[in-house]
Amino acid sequence: MTNPVIPPTSVEITASRRMSRQRTRDTQPEILVRRELHRRGLRYRVDAKLPGMPRRRADLLFTGAKVAVFVDGCFWHACPKHKTAPMNNGSWWAAKLARNVERDHETRDHLSSLGWTVLRVWEHEDMKHAASDIERVVRAAAGG
Q: How confident is the model at residue 54 (pLDDT cuts 50, 70, 90)?
């Protein structure tokens, strides 16, 4: 006897539609930090492939200075201050979000082993302050 296919509930369909609309790039925090860095005269690559990691990308990449910047969403990257645990399908979400954090650490470790500096900015941070931190690191790494 085969298992019958169970149609998704309206809650699952609604959640799926909402998640499919989540931006993976050009989020408001990313745009704010990019504008501020550009205003300060810094140039960078956006949504750039990472060296040795063809399926992973950095939000901002300063190739000359070897600095990779990630602007992380509090939900998707389990922010210590703002992370939440969805109630619906909780075990699946817990595994998904834990894997995201694990992947972040793998990316950091890989880039660090290649001599890159990895900066992570939470979406809730003040982007002008974050831009100041990024600028300081990039200028120091570039030798000036």
A: confident
Burial of 122 from C-beta contacts in 10 A (0-12 / 13-18 / 19+) = middle
Place of tokens 């040795």: 52
Residues 6+ apart with CB under 8 A from 108: 118, 120
SS3 content of the chain, % helix, strand, coil (to 5): 45, 20, 40
Quote the CA–CA distance of 56 and 58 in Å, as a whole number: 7
Cβ neighbours of 33 (radius 10 Å):
25
Among 125, 132, 114, 12, which Cα is nearest to 56's?
114
pLDDT at 99: 94
In the block, tokens 């699952």 appear at 12
pLDDT tens digit sequence for 81-122? 988 888 888 888 889 999 999 999 999 999 999 999 999 999
In sequence order, the 6+-apart residues with CB closer than 8 A to the CB of 120 are 69, 70, 72, 77, 104, 108
pLDDT at 20: 57
